[in-house]
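A.,

Following up on our hallway conversation. Structure tokens first:
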């Protein structure tokens, strides 16, 4: 029997519904003139980046179109109407391309390797998506143990995609009973490293423009990083910088689990204060 607590955050489901809603569509369907992809791993600020870029109004809606849970909601809503990848791809471009012709997406390595082939029945679909992309934003995180701890807590409590209006104190209270599970954290840490290296290897081979962005820089210099990403994709396009649309939910539990993990793998290890 699992000792994981059952109470979870409702915000992931709420956000997925919002991202599926027609209210999020741009008012008019326009031809795509620029395509970019955010290549990243889990728990490195991709939702903060994607949601902010969407709110600028000039960067399309670079969300996780290949998130398994979002795709399940999409299938439930539209049935078999967009089963083929080409039909699905045309549909999301018609709805989520901004008025200046920009279309973007947010893609994880496990989505590329597993979810896309399983959902569309063709292992070559992921390669098609990358070939069809003109430039890439490579989102990374320097502290991969922090990333793994965050991903572990998120998996236990579903604390993903927390919007700015959420009560962060409630989220902190929710995660207080997350148990220490070193084997799970270690497995997630391995995935964090593997996924990051996989995108790095791919991008080293491409001749397309690449902008490298780190989570730590995004949170430290939000305005500067957003301006840099917009300029990278649409050059001198004017836009209004929105408020940060997501909440940072790292809590004392993150620090506690990190310290426990370091002591577990090396009893002499400690974090500098």
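Then the amino acids I'd put at each of the 273 positions:
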């Amino acid at each position: 029997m699992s000792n994981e607590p059952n109470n979870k955050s409702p915000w992931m489901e709420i956000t997925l519904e919002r991202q599926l809603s027609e209210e999020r569509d741009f008012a008019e369907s326009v031809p795509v003139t620029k395509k970019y992809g955010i290549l990243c791993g889990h728990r490195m600020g991709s939702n903060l980046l994607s949601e902010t870029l969407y709110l600028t109004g000039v960067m399309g809606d670079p969300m996780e179109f290949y998130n398994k849970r979002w795709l399940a909601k999409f299938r439930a809503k539209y049935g078999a109407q967009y089963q083929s990848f080409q039909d699905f791809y045309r549909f999301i471009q018609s709805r989520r391309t901004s008025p200046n012709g920009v279309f973007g997406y947010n893609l994880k390595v496990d989505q590329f390797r597993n979810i896309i082939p399983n959902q569309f029945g063709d292992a070559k679909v992921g390669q098609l998506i990358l070939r069809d992309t003109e430039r890439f934003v490579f989102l990374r995180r320097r502290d991969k143990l922090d990333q793994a701890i965050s991903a572990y807590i998120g998996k236990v409590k579903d604390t993903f995609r927390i919007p700015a209006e959420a009560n962060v104190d409630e989220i902190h209270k929710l995660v207080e009973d997350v148990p220490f599970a070193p084997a799970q954290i270690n497995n997630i840490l391995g995935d964090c490293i593997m996924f990051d290296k996989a995108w790095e290897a791919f991008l080293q081979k491409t001749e397309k423009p690449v902008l490298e962005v780190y989570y730590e820089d995004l949170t430290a210099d939000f305005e500067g990083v957003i301006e840099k990403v917009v300029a990278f994709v649409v050059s001198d396009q004017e836009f209004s910088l929105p408020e940060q649309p997501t909440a940072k939910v790292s809590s004392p539990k993150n620090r506690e689990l990190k310290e426990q993990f370091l002591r577990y793998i090396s009893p002499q290890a400690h974090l500098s204060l």
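Residues 159 and 169 are 13 Å apart (CA to CA). Curious whether your intuition agrees with the design.

B.
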